[in-house]
Amino acid sequence: MWVMRRQRPANLPAARFAIDTDRGLLELARQEPSPNCDERPQGIEPDLIVVHGISLPPGEFGGPWIDQLFTNTLPPDVHPYFSEVSNLRVSSHLLIRRSGEIVQYVPFQLRAWHAGRLVVGRA
Question: Which CATH number is 31-123 given?
């Protein structure tokens, strides 16, 4: 078990981030398993953390849409944008919602499927 403490404002209680290293799960995260993942190639170790923002539909926050996108259950007829992205097979290891809730879609030992080509070193 690996544990870390995060920096926090003095008025907030301490949060402990414990990772079950056997299962690759962050214990305080809500688990929402995504089928959009696979084994990492032999000999490849993670050496990068990707942090990016997402809203579904664009510019709207909250709701179940990210969970549904990452679990292949996004209804294409609910919003015009959803018809463009509902067929994507994408995921993320973690999502930190604006409320502070953490959702885990893919165990850390597996590879999550990123949407599109990643370019490192550009803002």
Answer: 3.40.80.10
